[in-house]
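Ticket opened by: R.M.
Priority: normal
Category: complex prediction / small molecule

The reporter submitted a protein together with 4-nitrophenyl beta-D-glucopyranoside and asked that the result be attached to this ticket for the collaborator who will pick it up next week. Submitted input follows.
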Amino acid sequence: MSEGLPAGFFWGVATSAYQIEGAHDEDGRTPSIWDTFCRRPGAVANGETGDVACDHYHRMPADVSMIARLGVDRYRFSVSWPRVQPGGRGQVNPKGVDFYSRLVDELLEKGVDPWLTLYHWDLPQELEDAGGWPHRDTAYRFAEYAGLVHDALGDRVPTWTTLNEPWCSAMLGYDTGRHAPGRKNFAEAVRAVHHLLLAHGLASQELRSRGVGSLGITLNMGVSTPASDDPRDVDAARRADGLGTRIYLDPLVHGRYPEDVLIDIAARGAEIPVRSGDLEIISTPMDVLGVNYYTSHVFKATDNPAAPEVVPQGLPVTAMGWEIVPSGLTRLLVRLQQDYGVPMVITENGAAFDDAADEDGFVADADRADYLASHISAVAEAVRAGADVRGYFAWSLMDNFEWGYGYDKRFGIVRVDYETQQRTLKQSAQWFRDLITRSRS
Ligand code: PNW
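Result attached by the on-call engineer:
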């Protein structure tokens, strides 16, 4: 299955701060937009919050031992901005920084390379109150925060990701309102897109000036296919790709926004608030593009060009209702190689299934192992077709807070019992560990 993967291809597991840490009000942490959003009635399934989550903040050393036992080369985690810089401005919070410093030391001691993401959606609430991502100043605040984190961890962390999935931050956060901060205004979402990209660029410059050798951004992407040759369906797929992928990668890699996307946006009464010099900042060269892949969609036009229909292909689905499309990952990686040419890493891939645990907490999740296996094969196929892909992180290390779905949706290769906080390796974790062992022999 991993035939064709290049020598040195690495394996990892991924998490994010708000989804696992808990300890939401300890040691000086202030609320993020997710703390606030979770308290809004109806925002999250069952009214759940990340207040406790997997209690990783208090169980970090044992969790790192578990990561090491999986045999992975790297661990991808994110830093909670309101833990490290409460309120999003000013001095660091030494206790917050200390947590990540200990995490990095534990990882290094166990031979696992830390892969740090600066922002996985937990904007300090005070910055949202000042305007959030639609407000330009937030980008400058982010660059300052990046520098503070680098002051504390730069000597030990080799790889830096600025943002996780700006599409989710902008579109789910400010257009559909399904994620924090839960606003519903397309024009604001478009402003957020630009300021997220600017934040990435400013932070990249900050990190570069400090000598960071490997930095990049992570995007969630799929391939968009038209339902038929009908020009309206072809256009629906073009729009989805434009607003999902090209609006990020064209400025990041080529230093310009795609013309057709600017026209689509203008037709919806919105505008990208670009100022002179912004695109030079945004296109600061990156070393690695993080690719998060879960599914791909087929699009059919409707009477509203801004709202195409997703046409189910009759394929098996995960517990999220997402169709399982490994071939889409091959197509995506080959296309990204051709159009953008940046070395890539799969920073997330995985699936929620309706796990049934036995009395010992063991889950025989052959479905999840199959999902991972078929997508790893798809990566190998893309590599054989010329895509430069350097590594693969499974999402996720353990079951965790799945945003608007709360704790119902389990993506972990490790089971978490939320009553006892006991962790139990699932069959998929054993399978992943064995795959890693075999790939080294
Ligand atoms: C990603 N969508 O989120 C995130 O990076 C993870 O934190 C999350 O747990 C994981 O995927 C599984 O959902 C996404 O609506 C959330 O297309 C929603 C979408 C895509 C990615």
